[in-house]
Design a protein that fits this description.
Blueprint: E1 15-20, H1 35-42, H2 57-60, E2 63-68, H3 76-92, E3 96-101, H4 107-118, E4 121-126, H5 146-152, E5 156-166, H6 177-182, E6 185-188, H7 198-208, E7 212-218, H8 240-248, E8 254-261, H9 272-280
Parallel strand pairs: 1-2, 1-3, 3-8, 4-5, 4-7, 5-6, 7-8
């Protein structure tokens, strides 16, 4: 990833890129298992500095790629166990995991491991979908359920959860009623249209305070006109500029992990998604 060194463990690292190549939890179009591979391929064009922010992350952090979690593509529950165990080892070293997904199911076992070390964490969840369903196709574990499971297990500090970019049709008149009932801040995509998200992120930073925070960024939060390479696209989403404003708006937070999920390269026949992925890594000053 990013032409960084490879090492087998997270020992001695400040942060580590980790791939979780699964799409066993998807309910629509598969293909996210190939996300980590393609993100790495495109990252070869990421340079060491950001000219606007002056970010130089590789001068202040020791970062490496530690490869992929050895998942079980035939058994989603076993895969979740393998992810949880792998991330326990990563966070035990004090390293911050930077995850390349993989479908959004992976956030659940990752947060199990992260919360074991840090306690309940705040969450900035950027997505077209709330992913708080109780069941998906008759199953409790899937890419539409991770944050319901996290709340049930006490992994999240619910007063420090913000969901940004939600949109699309739902199964009830208020598709986000459950999120609001938990104390989440819900920012629907329509509230983001035609405006900068810098003021929003100032409010989100205040909401997160100094506690540990996890950032989960689903590529389908962006409008499919910009990022078609995903399994469940929804029109009228965020712009790449707004996506960068969200990422830059996390500066100064106590980030203990982050992920980019639901990247399904097969549906991005033009390579548009790749332009977005190549701009994210060095866009923040921290």
């Amino acid at each position: 990833m990013c032409k960084l060194p490879f090492q087998e463990t997270a020992d001695g690292l400040d942060a580590a890129f980790v791939g979780v190549p699964i799409d066993t939890g998807t309910s629509n179009r598969p293909g996210a298992r190939f996300g980590p591979r393609q993100i790495r391929v495109e990252s070869a064009m990421i340079r060491a500095y950001n000219s606007w922010t002056r970010a130089a992350p590789y001068e202040s952090l020791k970062v490496a790629d530690i490869g992929d979690v050895n998942v079980n593509l035939f058994d989603l529950k076993d895969t979740c166990k393998k992810i949880r165990e792998a991330y326990r080892e990563i966070v035990a070293t004090g390293c911050i995991p930077l995850t390349l997904g993989g479908d959004h199911t992976i956030a659940y076992p990752i947060l199990q491991a992260v919360a074991e070390r840090h306690g309940p964490v705040g969450l900035i969840h950027v997505d077209a979908h709330a992913d708080t369903s109780d069941m998906i196709l008759g199953e409790k574990i899937g890419h539409g359920t991770p944050f319901r499971r996290c709340v049930e297990e006490g992994l999240l500090d619910c007063k420090r959860v913000a969901q940004i970019g939600l949109r699309g049709s739902g199964y009830s008149p208020d598709n986000y009623e459950w999120s609001r009932a938990q104390g989440f801040r819900v920012v629907e995509a329509v509230e983001c249209w035609h405006k900068s998200l810098v003021p929003l992120m100032e409010e989100v930073r205040a909401q997160m305070r100094s506690g540990p925070v996890y950032l989960s960024f689903d590529i389908d939060s962006l409008d499919p006109g910009f990022a078609p390479g995903t399994g469940t696209p929804e029109i009228a989403g965020l712009t790449p500029i707004q996506g960068l404003e969200i990422i830059r708006g996390c500066r100064g937070l106590n980030l203990v992990g982050c992920d980019l999920v639901e990247v399904a390269p097969a549906y991005d026949t033009t390579g548009i998604d790749n332009k977005w992925r190549k701009t994210t890594t060095t866009k923040s000053k921290n």
